[in-house]
Amino acid sequence: MAAGGGSRMMDLTASIPKALLPVANKHLIWYPLNLLERVGFEEAIVITTKDVQKILSQETRMKLDIVCIPDDADMGTADALRHIHQKIKTDVLVMSCDLITDVALHEVVDLFRAHDATLSMLMRKAQDLTEPVPGQKGKTKPTEQRDFIGVDNTGKRLLFMANEADLEDDLIIRKSVMQKHPRMHIKTGLVDAHLYCLKKYVVDFLADNKSITSIRGELVPYLVRKQFSSFTSSKQKVEDMDHDPKKKAQQSLDIYSFLKDDELTELARDKSCWNDHRGDMEEAYHGAKLRCYAHIMNEGMCYRVNNLALYIEANRQVPKMLPIFGIDDLLIHASAQITDKSLVGTDSMIDAFTQIGERTSIKHSIIGTSCNISEKVKITNSIIMNGVTIEDGCSIQGCVICSNAVVAKGADVKDCLIGSGITIEAKSKRLNEVIVGSDQLMEI
């Protein structure tokens, strides 16, 4: 899914789609495509916009079925899945374009297959980022939406889920959950990575139930909750609605009405004595027909780059782990022109056709394509996107400078975000500011 507009970082995405934001000098969408390719996928459906479509053939060797939606379309993630309903013929793996991870993908898929699950998903521990974020001026707002979940004794079966921001003093768990699972392990501070395996019938359900617009915010909580609803009562409701067209028109369809097994399969489940899961197959064959599972990633890299703080953190960490992603490129591109008297740190990246002047120092930074950095410039802990010009004697520290910006001679810029095409005046001093055009707004 690569059609999101990046509403939480509009200053970065006002002139470039979120999927094309550079992270370690690779487009953001390259990372989920690379993950799929590395584990053996040969085909993928990409939901995106025309701007992103133009570059996708350069990002992967997989066969891509590209579905473009209008730039101004107001689609949630569930809406996007509904949009391609006719193309989905089997169970589906859904990923967001802003996910950067080195997860062993089979861990999530194995859960889905082994338990014949309705849903399996990837979660990870939330991270407290310590580095300052340009323009936040000491704000300590959490960078990620954190979830509060309950799991069974295996730590895999997802029994309860709520957003921490929605919880007050009391934690309310339904009686039907506690009756089936009297012992539940509560885990806090988890983040949904937006990677899901879903049954085909879930997509069919979405196609008919247009009231659900978001996978994370609506569909996943709905499926977790419905695991412990009575299948019989849900089935009876659907049958009642069939006899009453008015009720059918007024009520959303229930997920249970999309669970279709032929008579032979049902008979096999009722009569089978075959065991798995360490000798207990009761849940899969005779218990709940909806089953949700979560793989919690405790180690490794997993970022959802959906706000400025996480975008900066990803650019700091990804260059250290390039071999994991199968990137053998040098940190400094062969076509970059760097003078002998300049200093470039071993943890910095410089992309193609960039020119670095004499006695310039670059440390802990990423420099994009076709930048012109003049003499006696100091750049530290910064992200410089494509086509940026930095004139003589400037000092850049802890900044994000978007494409085609100009920092004029002698400017001192610290902890700032500079929008696309912005010019910083000569010899000016800017500290902890978000400097963007009037049409670029941002949610921090």
SSE-based structural type: alpha/beta
Look at the structure and give the mean pLDDT.
83
What is the radius of gyration computed over CA atoms, rounded to a whole number of angstroms?
25 Å
Shape: elongated
Task: Show unreliable segments.
Answer: 275-280, 439-444
Q: What is the number of helices?
A: 13
> Main beta sheet: strand number and arrangement?
6 strands, mixed
Instruction: Tell me the distance between the termini.
Output: 23 Å
Number of strands: 30
Helix content: 10-25%
* Quaternary assembly: single chain
In terms of DSSP E residues, the strand content is 15-25%
Can you summarize this structure?
24% of the residues lie in helices and 24% in strands. The protein has 444 residues and is of the alpha/beta class.
Structural commentary:
With 444 residues, the protein is an alpha/beta fold. It is built from 13 helices and 30 strands.
Strand and helix layout:
Layout lengths: L9 H4 L8 E2 L2 E2 L2 H9 L4 E6 L1 H7 L6 E6 L8 H7 L8 E4 L3 E3 L3 H10 L4 E7 L21 E5 L6 E6 L11 H6 L4 E14 L1 H9 L6 H12 L4 H13 L1 H6 L12 H9 L10 H5 L5 E6 L4 E3 L3 H10 L19 E2 L4 E2 L4 E2 L4 E2 L4 E3 L2 E2 L4 E2 L4 E3 L2 E2 L4 E2 L4 E3 L2 E2 L4 E2 L4 E3 L2 E2 L4 E2 L4 E3 L2 E2 L9
Parallel strand pairs: 3-4, 7-11, 13-16, 14-17, 15-18, 16-19, 17-20, 18-21, 19-22, 20-23, 21-24, 22-25, 23-26, 24-27, 25-28, 26-29, 27-30
Antiparallel strand pairs: 1-2, 5-10, 6-12, 7-10, 8-9, 8-10
Helix pairs in contact: 4-7
